[in-house]
Design a protein that fits this description.
47% helix; 448 residues; Rossmann fold; globular; binds NADPH dihydro-nicotinamide-adenine-dinucleotide phosphate; 3 domains; alpha/beta
Length: 448
Amino acid sequence: MNIDEKLQPILDDVIRRNAGEREFHQAVEEVLSSLGRVIAKRPYYADNALIERICEPERQIIFRVPWVDDKGQVQINRGFRVQFNSALGPYKGGIRFHPSVNVGIIKFLGFEQTFKNALTGMPIGGGKGGSDFNPRGRSDGEIMRFCQSFMSELFRHLGEYTDVPAGDIGVGGREIGYMFGQYKRLTNRYEAGVLTGKALFHGGSRARKEATGYGATYFVQSMLQTKGDSFDGKKAVVSGSGNVAIYTMEKIIEFGGKIMACSDSNGYIVDENGIDLDLVKEIKEVRRARISEYARLKGTGSHYIEGGSIWDVPCDVAMPSATQNELTGKDAATLIKNGVIAVGEGANMPSTPDAVRQFLEANILFAPGKAANAGGVATSALEMQQNASRDFWSFEETEGRLAKIMRSIHDSCAETAEEYGAPGNYVLGANIAGFVRVAESMDALGVI
Ligand code: NDP
């Protein structure tokens, strides 16, 4: 990546001061590499250490999470909340439970979240949290005790005007329910706006569960429309089979596309007849089983491949929706060779820098995660809005607002890319549009 010579020392400093935090370095480098054109046009953005301040989280909280497993053994995990930037509103961003979680991963996610939230145009700052707890194979009781212990520390740092977490990898409606229950108990307040992704009867929003996947699909549909094209009749491959992947597949099917393959962390399934989404939902949302079950239950036309790369499956549209750095330069080369026309990142930073470079050089329509997957947090902000006004909107009303927001994020990325001399480059457009909004807001607040 090419970085402007004025910005290189900032990156060097971030790397030095956050040693070993590889994903965080990668995310900062990716944003800084887009900012050369901005400071050339508006040099005052490089004043008052504004960019350095944007790269430094406002607050980082790391805490012990002790809990008792079903055998009566005491287990210890580490909890994190990085409150990255509150220039535009309360910190907002999900909680991830996965054994790979460390402070560098949470910082990368919080940094990305700050610009993503700015892109939505809504009054939300950026934050992210999580734990190295592995929920896989844990009983319902163990999950509940872990969530309660996690919240027993985190609650003092939250509040509907302070910091509002949501779900992410390993944290869905069940976990949000347990955390909200513990928050309510500890504070003696029914403060529904403190968490989003809640069940409807706790003040959750309709369409929140579907929002990230639907939103990413709307974004890619808008990109296709700029070429007079659509999802209709297209073959798509979606990695993962969690929240984002499932609702991406659902919307693509509704738009007339056919899903060829999806995956989990063990391997992927291919179905020549198009993936049967009801069966995937049954396996993942009800039984919480492995995706390999699909081929066993479905039989003819489908098969399961242990390990390997899902990106070997030929497709018109690729939607990486599992985790960071899951789509490498080699995978990008394979996708391009097989004729991919659009790539939409449902996950956060799923494509490596080499993969992104190849997509851009090959003029593939490429939607970066911080723009394409912003529908989740945007609908979380709609949930906060409903909680504040003690209101409930219909599914159609909420999805309609989501569709409008995604269209506006798409247009703002496209127009910004054009304004800065890189038409069609959504990476540059998203980075600059998000940065400018955060920078303007911070600047107006004085040196904070
Ligand atoms: P889920 O936990 O619901 O699903 C994650 C999926 O990805 C699972 O199928 C999981 O498989 C797979 N996966 C996880 N880690 C790996 C890995 N190392 N290699 C391969 N596959 C893996 O999470 P979400 O769907 O919520 O999140 C997916 C991505 O989308 C993340 O990057 C998240 O940050 C991002 N995102 C989520 C939003 C949301 O609203 N939920 C909003 C915006 C972004 P397995 O079950 O085997 O672990």
